[in-house]
UniProtKB/TrEMBL annotation:
All copies of domain Transcription regulator PadR N-terminal, residue ranges: 26-88
Gene3D superfamilies documented for this protein: Winged helix-like DNA-binding domain superfamily/Winged helix DNA-binding domain
Name under which the protein is recorded: PadR family transcriptional regulator
Coiled coil: none
Xref: PANTHER family: PADR-FAMILY TRANSCRIPTIONAL REGULATOR, TRANSCRIPTIONAL REGULATOR RV3488
SUPFAM superfamilies: Winged helix' DNA-binding domain
């Protein structure tokens, strides 16, 4: 396996969890799948439709999203929205993300950086 393939695999694993947090965060305002794909892509979360739609169904089954069909337009669209439980989970995940980011940055800092010595 090449370094590029190894890196790609690890990046995919890293992104998988971030898409959950990002989706729950974005869907605090109602949105449909395609608009979520566009919003996530614009923010740097590259995700394919065949990955996102099963994720949305799973999050709905877990009670983290709710959905309803909008049939007012020519083409019916299923709108999703984060539930109170989903919002709480997203907040907890964002908090943990911040904690982990801080911990990794501390591990990456040269020894002695946090001693207060000059």
């Amino acid at each position: 396996m090449t370094m590029d393939a190894t890196l790609a695999g690890h990046l995919q694993e890293l992104r998988r969890g971030t898409v959950v947090v990002a989706s729950l965060t974005v869907l605090r305002e109602p949105g449909y799948g395609y608009s979520l794909l566009e919003t996530l892509g614009a923010a740097g979360f590259e995700v394919e439709a065949n990955t996102l739609y099963p994720l949305l169904r799973r999050l709905e089954t877990q009670g983290l999203l709710t959905s309803e069909w909008n049939t007012d337009e020519a083409r019916p669209r299923k709108f999703y929205r984060t539930t109170a439980q989903g919002d709480a989970i997203a907040a907890a995940l964002r908090g943990e993300w911040g904690r982990l980011d801080k911990a990794v940055n501390e591990l990456d800092a040269p020894a002695g950086d946090d001693t207060g010595e000059t």
